[in-house]
Amino acid sequence: MIKEERYTSLKEIVKIYLPDDVAVDEIHEESHFINELNINSANLVDIVLDVEDAFDIRLENEDMDQMQTVKDALAIIDKKLTAK
Amino acid sequence: MGKRVVITGLGVCAPNGVGLTDFTIAMQQGKSGIRFQPQLAALKFGCQIAAEPLVKDGLVSTYFTPLQLRGLNASGIVYGVIAGTDAWKDAGLPIAPNDTPDWNAGIIFGTGILGVDKFRESIHLVDDQNVRRLGSTTVLQTMASGISAYLGGILGCGNQVTTNSSACATGTEGLLMAYERIASGKAKTMLTGSCSDSGPYVWGGFDAMRILPRGYNNNPTKASRPLSESAAGFVPGSGAGALVLESLESALARGAKIYAEVLGGSVNSGGQRREGSMTAPNNEAVQRCIKKAIQNAGIHKKDVDVINGHLTATTKDATEIANWSTALERSGADFPFVNSFKSLFGHCLAAAGSIECVASILQFNTEQVFGNTNCEDLHPKIGEIISEVKVPRKTIDYKPNILAKASFGFGDVNACVIFKKYSD
User: Fold this and answer.
1) Nearest chain A CA: its distance from B111 CA (Å)
2) DSSP-derived secondary structure letter, B97
3) Contact (CB, 8 A) for B368 and B395
4) Distance CA B207, CA B189 (A)
5) What is the pLDDT of residues B231-286, one digit of tens each?
6) Is A33 on the interface with B (CB under 8 A)?
7) Are B40 and B48 in contact (CB under 8 A)?
């Protein structure tokens, strides 16, 4: 899967967790999930589970702690897929 | 005397009708919501029938956001949110804006056990050493107060938001708690109601107790027979009912439609003494509860003209009628009209009190007393106490003035509320 596809898949996952006042096109690589996209911190664990399912990978606790922005998430996905 | 309290909104998600319009017609016409349940048959239940609301998938998505629907596996929350949101809209109340809750509006929405299917899902994951896969809503869907929490967020209520639980008395008890909060001036508006999950994990325990009818698996609509000699046990049910209670002054100020006034009521327990037990009520406690409700409502025993009983369709129905008769000191043709709605939608457990309160209040609106289905053979012990005509088998035209509604629950707990046709 090329990077652009991964980014699109991730945006699809994140979309549902956005509050009403944040639009999908406000998602950028640098976006911070909680501070900028206003995603409820409780939902970060759901995003992780969705990412695991979509990419068929497993994220550990330390991966979750590092996953602050969209870019972080893409990097972790990249690392896990390379290691497979 | 506290503030006068009136009912300005109703909502219901019942086995024989989802939404007020369908439910009203079902109650008037005696339409049953009791059906054969293939899942219970596959699981070898003795009683393979139940009363479960039929909620269309398309309907659910109009009450929940796509995010709320993800992984939602708690039928009680679905029923409760439908009934609660409907009642709020029916009252003409606004959803609080994004930045401020309505500090004067609260919620008391009860349940017995919530999110059972979600809990089962979690148990499997935990036992498979997969606790990390539970997701963020397992707690929210399985905590008892999940229902008041979901409704509180959807409506934006800023007053007390809580969940009560007293088995099959839950709905009626919650209504009285909401009434007291408004009467004492602590809130202007309270959404109250109760819900109960569907499914074998909720109903199984009752099947094991052998208190459900087993001879009607091929004839479900005939199974629930309150007040009859052939009563064979209660049919398990599920769903939710919801009512908006409001101070009279608030209702008048916003020109709200008023269904009825709540005059007061009483809750008590028989302490599981004498004939009272974990599963049966102490008769004196039931009588005291009814008498105290009448006293608190400021009316006389002779003023009650309609009773909606707990009357689950067991041998205890005759005892309940005897208790009403003793408490009211009325019998024969002097006894009020009495009905039980469980013949149509079974015993909805924690949701029973609130669904039955909604149906009771609809009778003020339609100017009817809804009929008792499946009671062709009135129990002779009941016939000895009250006149046959006081148990209408079909819906009759009558303008109820004062209606007493009681619910009794496991643990020997009782609740009785008095409603009055509204007049200034």
Assistant:
1) 25
2) P
3) yes
4) 39
5) 999 999 999 999 999 999 999 999 999 999 999 999 999 999 999 999 999 999 99
6) no
7) yes
